[in-house]
Amino acid sequence: MTTPERPYCGHCQRPLRTCVCRWIVPLSNLVEVIILQHPLETHNAKNTARLLHLSLQQSRLVEGEQFTDDFLAALLGEGDKTNVLLYPPTPEEATLKLTAPAPLPQLPLPEHIRLIVIDGTWRKSRKMLYLNPLLQALPRLSLADCPPSAYAIRKAQKDNQLSTLEASCYALQQLENTRVDYAPLLQAFKGFVRQQQAFIPPRH
């Protein structure tokens, strides 16, 4: 006897039981966002990238770990925008022989900026950076003085680590000079976290 497949939501592509459509907050972001999602994150119920993608009018979600240079060059070259990678400094880059990131330039208007976000655990995101030299060379935006993370359903691997959704919202606030209000999405994110917490068995 075969086990019937779980029904999935056609919009958010998650099981109906954990559908996140109720938490989607449509936002007209000024900075374009491209989310590069590690394949192991795609079906992770705790992942926040799809909720982010479905909420942002200008966003793309691309799954993969290692991309060809031609693919990335085409992706980053669309629309003649300034590409910025959302990623913290990594002091060990010289030891790993990574390409040094370009300095962060004088940024144009938000409408001419493209934010690249790597979606994965710290270890997975490091590997994706290592495997994709074109990403290594991008100027980087790192965050500082952010509020504590509300991502209580996933263990942080570094102090003050944020979810993909939270980090992206704070980066967009910075790049757009708070011209778009991301507070409603950050508030909805807390509802998403509570929904996921309800599926975690209590500890005895």
Q: What is this entry, summarized?
A:
The chain is an alpha/beta fold. The protein has seven helices and five strands.
Which key phrases capture this entry?
single chain, alpha/beta, 7 helices, five-stranded parallel sheet, 204 residues, 5 strands
Describe the protein in words.
The protein is of the alpha/beta class and 204 residues long. The chain has one domain. It is 30% helix and 12% strand. The chain has seven helices and five strands; from the N terminus they run βαβαβαβααβαα. The protein has a five-stranded parallel beta sheet. Helix 1 (49-55) links the parallel strand 1 and strand 2 (59-63). The chain is globular. The two termini are 35 Å apart.
Percent of residues in beta strands?
5-15%
- Net shape: globular
Count up the helices.
7
Integer count of domains: 1
Helix share, percent:
25-40%
Mean pLDDT figure: 89
Spatially, the strands of the biggest sheet line up as 2-1-4-3-5
SSE ordering: EHEHEHEHHEHH
List low-confidence stretches: none
| Strands, count | 5
Largest beta-sheet characterization: 5 strands, parallel
Radius of gyration: 17 Å
Q: Between the first and last Cα atoms, what is the distance in angstroms? A: 35 Å
Question: What structural class do the secondary elements suggest?
Answer: alpha/beta
